Amino acid sequence: MNAIALAQTLPVSTLATYEVRNAPGIMTLGEARSIINDAHQAANPWRQTRKLAHCHVAWGLPGQERALLQWLQKDGTISAGLPMTRTALVDILNSDVLPSRGRAFLEELLALPGSSDNHARSLQAIATMATQKFLRARGDKTRQLLVSNKHGEDVITGCVGSSYNDYPHVQLMDDMIDGLPDGATDWQVLSLRLTDNVLRVRFLADDRHIGVGRDHSIVQAEDGKLIPAIELWNSENGHRAVWLKSLGYRALCANGYASLAEQAVHRWNHVGDAERLRQGIAGAVEDIIIQSRGIADAYDQALDIAVDDAWGWMQDELADFTRAEAAAVQDALHHDTTSRDAQGQPRLLASMLDAVTFAAHDIHDRDDGDLIRVEQMERAAARMLRRGQREARDGMLHAPIAD
């Protein structure tokens, strides 16, 4: 993490997590809603509006090991301040506040090794004064500070604009369930991840259930084909719009797939009337269910498209992957659960999709992982599927020939 994260901020917390492939039993949508509500009640979130010109970030206060956001009070005194998560500090010191190279200056300043305690305190004092100057220069900016209770202490978890409209996770779950068919509270949840920043829930798009073995491994269903599923995203601190997205879920190894087309994603920003969000969710649910069935059908077609060199054909799609991600995809191509042709080789379009999505979950879909990156890698798989469908001739794909 960068030096700002080392400047006495709190890490982003995982508040709830569930994965069907790691759990001893089945979770339903109704149970997921209860877990999310319990987390909301424990956090007891609230917000306050502050002018940035009245605030500053204080590092290295006597007897205080954490950076605090303080503000000027009505009586002219400075508040005791509140600690922040790493996300909140970066939100506060974003491009609206810091000038060009301003954040880099603070990072480098706070990262300098102190030759003594006094030297270190001097560096932190300079950072405090610099931040105060930057904030005062943006006196016309008003922000909402999002505050939650963590272990009995109020902590700032985000900073959003004055027009940001709150749409709690629990309200979103209620609105979505209201739009689903009767009995949807019993639909099976595949994955639940709730952090300070985002909520992601994945669940099957009908009333079928995937069995879980005694060793918590998923029992193969539907002959390893994709099962229609739905994904929901939200954020209460400005880090994600509201999303409803169609998925395909491969029961054998808990792979998720991105939507096959942009119109399969319904997205709403946190602005305007909350009723607009509620009506949008209700109207989108039916379309998402239909789209998820189309993804499952497209994957079935990918099982019938062969490729002469899977790794060679994939290279263009992996251009934006890190070296570690690409290596994980290459390993996953030969994983036991990857789809194979009649000769037992991973030389199908479906094999390549399996490899990318398996790698995404294997690397990033953990308690400390990057859910946004999982979604980006799944979208790469979706692009790969569309490209493969376009380029296939007589059920065959050919890797580019190197010059």
Provide structural commentary.
The protein is of the alpha+beta class and 403 residues long. It is built from eleven helices and 16 strands. The strands form four sheets. Strands 1, 2, 9, 10, 11, 12, 13 and 14 form an eight-stranded antiparallel β-sheet that branches. A three-stranded antiparallel β-sheet has the order 3-7-8. Helix 2 packs antiparallel against helix 6. 41% of the residues are buried.
Secondary-structure blueprint of this entry?
Elements: H1 3-6, E1 14-19, E2 27-28, H2 29-43, E3 46-51, E4 55-58, E5 68-71, E6 82-83, H3 86-92, H4 102-111, H5 117-136, E7 142-150, E8 153-161, H6 169-179, E9 188-195, E10 199-204, E11 226-234, E12 242-250, E13 255-256, E14 265-268, H7 274-302, E15 306-307, H8 310-314, H9 323-332, H10 349-364, H11 371-391, E16 396-397
Helix pairs in contact: 2-6, 6-7, 9-10, 10-11
Q: What is the averaged pLDDT score?
A: 80
Strand proportion:
15-25%
Number of continuous helical runs: 11
Return the string of H and E elements. HEEHEEEEHHHEEHEEEEEEHEHHHHE
Q: Class by helix and strand content?
A: alpha+beta
> What best-fitting shape do the alpha-carbon axes yield?
globular
Supply Rg: 24 Å
Gap between N and C termini, in Å? 40 Å
Helix content: 25-40%
Q: How is the biggest beta sheet arranged? A: 8 strands, antiparallel
Number of strands: 16
Uncertain parts: 1-6, 213-220, 253-262
Number of discrete domains: 3
